[in-house]
Amino acid sequence: MSTKYKATTTEDAYFITITTVGWIDVFTRLNQKQIIIQALHYCQNQKGLQIYGYCIMHSHIHLLCKATNGFVLSDVMRDFKKFTSKKIIQTIIEQPESRREWMLDYFKKACAHLKQEQHYKVWQNGYHAEHIFSNKFIKQKMDYIHNNPVKDKIVTLPEDYYFSSARNYAALENELEVILLELY
Questions:
Q1: pLDDT band at 10 (very low <50, low <70, confident <90, very high)
Q2: Which of the 8 DSSP states describes residue 58?
């Protein structure tokens, strides 16, 4: 397995992108975004995850983060994806969702080829991780994270998007505490 885009070191920061299978826009619903926020909060408190930047888009999540206290980032991401997959499917089944049958069918077909017994597959395999190596790279990735909703014309200003750390950096009400970096 290639390690080009994997978190292979401990205690180092990474820019990570996690994407749903087929780029399905799962996170258009508030309840689904709340699952992600709650899971990230849990990872912060229980799995040594330090988050410096994040954005929950409709089909993917961007994080600038690192694992601490002896935790390994690849293990944290594996557990995060496993937990959120189950919660996302449970929410689709139990709460109002106009695309319920279509989404469940898509997630079911996405795991049909797997050797391991699995009913639904929400996330693409692995995750895209880029090792943070300079302040310039941090600034570039934070700008990318915060401007993602602007680029997609969801909001006009980065800090207007409620599920992004752009709000933290603008000292606005937010859903998830992050460690603020001095971005210059």
A1: low
A2: S
